[in-house]
Design goal:
CATH topology of the largest domain: Rossmann fold
Number of domains: 2
CATH class of the largest domain: Alpha Beta
Largest sheet: 10 strands, mixed
CATH architecture of the largest domain: 3-Layer(aba) Sandwich
Shape: globular
Strand content: 15-25%
Bound molecules: iron/sulfur cluster
Helix content: 25-40%
Number of helices: 13
Number of strands: 16
Order of helices and strands: EHEHEHEEEEEHHHEEEHHEHHEHEEHEH
Distance between the termini: 34 Å
Length: 364
């Protein structure tokens, strides 16, 4: 049987239109909430961002979903996350605390934990509640990402890893390939049975944080499994699905997925992050100097968030953030968390120029 992925159009965050988009999506994928009493919603709350920045799952969508769940007889709703930093502040800034009348808001860092198996002899400590609810709803955001190139349902589950453990795992799995395999293993343990992607306003370019640019993508994507939903979302964004390691690891053929909904023929062209462009030209790395993490002293306010987040202590404040390039593993966590778009992975100008020229010739 084919995996069904729904893509419905929704032009903005008007509550009436959101309600319809959610109801249509559930109908398209034939989902009902029979025998489901306890639900945990995992949104993307990367950090304390205003919903207009399009970095986090929009609270209006979550509100409409909570109303549907209540109407369907769901007795207990939880909304939980562990942000890249400042989770409690994120709940406030992202508009999640306003949903307390529908759901219990939980900071995964403060929740009891349970060991989940990742692979033989390897376990990971995740919030116990993930195994205590009848249904986990994964509510991701349609965004680009410097390291993994896109961040959709699979990557969103990394927010179930509480607090500092996230940084530690970046150190253990430093490359994009290993890190993506870790993401797939975490997904296998959590296995959300209902997945949404808020693509009403997505984020393109240097996502997933403040450096990305909001894009009016006007779609809501839904399905019962992360893999097919991510594969279709990647294609809609204008990336090759198999160029994303987490997608490749699912080993699902496009022919095994059926798309449905009034948005199923939509194809967008999200601006790719520089890192995605440059991985197409790995030969350039051999000829020219390697990329480096650089903070812009005009934008950096020396808040120290990136310093705390760096898994290998490669950053210091002097007074602005400065990177020890020998220690840096290029996990891009600093870029992800900087609230001021002040720190980036800088490529040699000549590399950027050549890759742009080749792309132009190839019309990519
Ligand atoms: S680079 Fe960004 S996160 Fe780091 S200290 Fe400067 S402003 Fe703060
Ligand atoms: S400096 Fe940034 S990219 Fe380098 S290891 Fe630290 S957080 Fe990762």
């Amino acid at each position: 049987m084919k995996e069904i992925v729904s893509i419905v159009k929704c032009i903005d965050y008007n509550p009436k239109r959101l309600k319809k988009a959610l109801e249509d999506s559930l109908k398209n994928i034939n989902f009902d909430f029979k025998k489901i009493n306890k639900v945990l919603i995992k949104p993307n709350l990367l950090g304390p961002h205003n919903p207009d920045q399009a970095v986090t799952t929009h609270p209006f969508l979550l509100e409409e979903l909570c109303k549907i769940l209540k109407k369907q007889g769901v007795k207990k709703i939880f909304i939980g996350d562990s942000s890249a930093h400042s989770t409690d502040l994120s709940f406030e800034k992202c508009g999640i605390n306003k949903l307390k009348k529908y759901a219990k808001i939980i900071n995964f860092e403060k929740e009891p934990k349970k060991l989940f198996s990742l692979e033989e002899n390897q376990k990971i400590s995740l919030p116990k509640i993930l195994s205590k609810v009848d249904l986990v709803i994964n509510f991701a955001k349609l965004k680009t990402h410097g390291l993994t190139h896109v961040t959709l349902c699979t990557k969103n589950l990394y927010g179930c890893v509480p607090g500092k453990l996230k940084e530690k795992l970046h150190k253990v799995y430093p490359g994009v390939k290993e890190f993506s395999t870790l993401l797939n293993r975490i997904e296998m343990q959590i296995k959300p049975k209902l997945c949404f992607i808020d693509g009403i306003i997505g984020l393109e370019g240097e996502g997933p944080g403040a450096s990305g640019i909001p894009i009016k993508s006007q779609i809501l994507i839904a399905g019962k499994d992360c893999g097919p939903v991510d594969i279709i979302a990647t294609e809609i964004m204008g990336f090759k699905p198999n160029s994303i390691y987490t997608n490749k690891n699912y080993n699902i053929k496009k022919s095994q997925i059926e798309t449905i909904g009034d948005g199923k023929d939509i194809r967008l062209k999200f601006k790719k992050p520089n890192t995605a462009m440059l991985t197409m030209f790995l030969w350039l790395n051999k000829l020219f100097p390697k990329s480096k993490i650089i903070a812009n002293p005009e934008k950096c306010i020396s808040c120290g968030i990136c310093v705390k987040k760096c898994p290998v202590q490669a950053l210091i404040l002097q007074p602005h953030a400065i990177c020890n390039h020998k220690t840096c593993i290029k996990c891009l966590c600093c870029v992800e968390v900087c609230p001021h778009d002040a720190i980036h992975l800088e490529e040699a100008k000549i590399k950027k120029l050549i890759s742009k020229m080749v792309l132009k010739i190839r019309k990519v």
